[in-house]
Amino acid sequence: MKTIDFLPESYRQRELLRRARLWWAAVTLVLGGAIGSAATAQAYLRRSLERELAALTPEFTSAHDQVRELTALQAEILAASHEASLVTYLEHPWPRTRLMAEIVRPLPESIRLTQLHVTEEELARPAAAVAGPRQAPAADAAKPVGAEHDLLRLFEEMERRQTVILLEGHTADVSALHGYVAELSQSPLVAHAGIKSMEAAPDKQLTRTQFTLRLLVHFGPGQRGDTPVPPAPAATAGQVLPPPALAAQASDRRNPAGGAR
To answer: Looking at the structure, do residues 84 and 192 belong to the same domain, yes or no?
Structure first.
């Protein structure tokens, strides 16, 4: 059976429009509520962040000031370190009085020293330093100034010099001479001690021996570089090398308590 609708077409259109408006109003309310909630949440978060920022601003300012003070202190410490290194390096040549005291302290009565020479010898530069290419300084590297500049210049001029002491004298007891050389080798200021030459005295009526000792002095405080290891001495004409066993025996005879002085 066919249903007959007696309502006019305009009524149906008004009904559809009314329903559509209701849906639009509902959607608008939902969207408005969502937007309002989001705006409220954002405002709350903004105020919370502003409060946290206001609370952290003094701490940030204090930390920034401390960083600047730390940087300034580090610069002062670096400058003071360069000055201290320069002062220490300027004191690196051992005092001659201290060197003489180290030489005279273990000197036995049977040995007489006639001459003492303190000289400086130029050390041979390593082959890598002579032939190797030098690295160009970086373009943005700061040039040393003040104490650092002076210290670097002293390094370049003095680091390749070795202090050498030559002792000349005579003795009638060769074993005492070897013991004396062994004692000098134990000195904290002496890197190496050896007999350079030893021969009979020209005066044959006296049984004494003339000698020349060569001492290498340790690098002083502030000097960079290690003390060079002296080469093993070779026996040549007119030279007598100190036998280690004889030197040890002489040292034991002079120090029966185990070398304690």
So the answer is: no
Distance CA 128, CA 117 (A): 33
Q: What is the DSSP letter of 234?
A: -
Whether 92 contacts 222, CB under 8 Å: yes
Task: Quick: pLDDT tens for 203-237.
Answer: 665 678 899 999 998 876 655 544 443 433 443 33
Domain shared by 118 and 77, yes or no: no
113 and 213 assigned to the same domain? yes
Percent residues over pLDDT 90 in the chain: 28
Count of domains in the chain?
A: 2
Q: Which of 23, 40, 146, 155 is nearest to 88 (CA)?
A: 155
Tokens, residue 170: 């005579």
The answer to whether residues 150 and 86 touch, using CB atoms and an 8 Å cutoff, is: yes
Q: 17 and 35 in one domain?
A: yes
Closest of 125, 118, 126, 76 to residue 99, by C-alpha: 118
Average pLDDT on 38-67 reads 91
Question: Do 182 and 247 form a contact (C-beta atoms < 8 A)?
Answer: yes
DSSP type of residue 259: S
